[in-house]
Design goal:
single chain, 108 residues, alpha+beta, three-stranded antiparallel sheet, 4 helices, 6 strands, 28% helix, globular
């Protein structure tokens, strides 16, 4: 399955340091990771996060279909605001189920 992730500059740098193979650990207060099902929604989120001095990124990756079936799709607004909520403790297994590399889509 294709998924997208809006990312801050800091997060993008950490992903790049991993060789574009995994998402970084979350801060203790960040208990859920949000991965979205379409580029438009990821762009919308990245645009809202962006400040004058900070870059935001839209990233794309593939996740194993069988693995992601373990999680429910949540619609959180408009009909295209669809995302998976992955508990932070599941991040290592989530990263193990990424197929190929995380790719850069656009800078916002």
């Amino acid at each position: 399955m294709d998924l997208f992730k809006p990312a801050s500059k800091r997060e993008y740098i950490l992903i790049k340091q991993s060789g574009f193979k995994k998402f970084p650990k979350r801060l203790p207060k960040q208990t859920i990771l949000h991965f979205v099902l379409n580029e438009n929604y990821a762009t919308e989120i990245a645009s809202k996060w962006k400040s004058k001095d900070e870059e935001s990124y839209v990233l794309h990756f593939l996740i194993d279909d069988e693995y992601i079936k373990n999680f429910r799709i949540h619609t959180v607004g408009k009909d295209y605001h669809k995302e998976f909520w992955i508990p932070a403790g599941e991040l290592p297994e989530f990263n193990d189920n990424i197929i190929g590399l995380i790719s850069f889509v656009k800078l916002i």
